[in-house]
Amino acid sequence: MCHTVPLAPERFGLDPLTLPLAELLLTKMQIVQLNEKDVRDLCALLIDHPFGEGDGEMINLPHLARLCADDWGLWKTVGLSAQKVRDFSDAYELEAEPKLTLVERLRVLQTALEATPKTLRWKARAQLGERVLWYELPEEVRRG
User: Fold this and answer.
1) Phi, psi dihedral angles at 48 (to 5 degrees)
2) Distance of alpha carbon 38 from alpha carbon 9, whole angstroms
């Protein structure tokens, strides 16, 4: 993981089989060096699940945006990942309707990231900007 994604105990159990969709989305969006599989996973998740105010079959956008509004590095990487997914979506042979859905949901995400009030911690880290590395690259997993 390039960032620590906060997983609050009260969020566990919201979905009986997996993490809530907001956290699931963040586990992919926090990757600085997205590969094709990551982008395809993000496309599938965003096309299949709308943003909303709650959990369940929707991605809890206010929760996701608040997490990013507290951590400049996570906010920065999620914004960059959204743009990468948008750029890569042109290379995939998506039908018009799913592609429109994807592009619109990425726009909604980026708007929420910008509009959500930032914490003092976020603002302090933002002063350093990209001059200081804001992520960690995970070590390669060596197999066999």
Assistant:
1) -85, -20
2) 26
Whole-number Å distance between alpha carbons of 83 and 106:
8
- Give the span between the Cα atoms of 70 and 60, in whole angstroms: 16
Cα–Cα distance, 137 to 73 (Å, whole number): 13
Question: Which of 83-87, 92-96, 102-106 has the lowest average pLDDT?
Answer: 92-96
Which residues are paired to 51 by β-bridges? Answer: 59
CA distance 3 to 39: 17
For 6-30, what is the mean pLDDT?
82
Bridge partners of 60?
A: 52
pTM, full prediction: 0.87
For the chain, what is the mean pLDDT? Answer: 90
Q: Which DSSP letter does residue 10 get?
A: G
43-63 burial, b for 16+ CB within 10 Å, e for fewer? bebbbebebeeebeeebbbeb
Instruction: Indicate the burial class of 82 (C-beta count within 10 angstroms; 0-12, 13-18, 19 or more).
Output: buried
**52 membership: H or E segment, kind and range:** strand 51-52
Distance separating alpha carbons of residues 84 and 141, to the nearest angstrom: 24
